[in-house]
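Human: We require from you a protein record containing the residue sequence and its fold in token form, and nothing else.

Assistant:
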Amino acid sequence: METVVQAPPDPELNLLTEWGDPDLSPRTRTAAIASVIFHAGVLLILILLPPQVGTRRPESAVVVHRVITPLIEPLTELTQKAPNTGKVQKEFNAAEVTPRPRIQVPAAAPSTTRGRATKQAAIPTPPTPRPATPQPVPLPEAPKVDAGVKQPPKAEVPQVAAAAPPPPIVPVQPAPPPAALPAPIRAYPPPPAMAP
């Protein structure tokens, strides 16, 4: 027994043009009612407040303690005694600056842990330089080789034939163009025509 199944009907094209939440209208209504109740409560509280709440206290009660620091002349003298009357230069030459005096290191206190040296150490004098012309050193003699003259061993090397000269280059004649191409050969028969 054959079961006949009907083809399902063509489904309707749904392009999802209904955007949004289906529960949007009840939520919007609830939010609007809650907002009106909240604002009405805030307005009622502002009306019932006493008038002293919104005013400021006078600022005369605040006392500011001010400390005045006097300016005094610096304790040290200024470093530049005479005004600079020369031309201002962009470059500085260190050779023109006068050298500083050498700093003298004061003598240190004597050591309490070591005894004093009995005699000052002698400062060694540098050695005198030798003349610049050194004596030539004779080279040792080269060793002599006493070897008899021997004939080198003959190795049997196969003779390689002389390389053949390259074949001559023959110019290629261009082929004449074909007169007409033959009709293509069909390997399969043409497909049958569809009946309407």
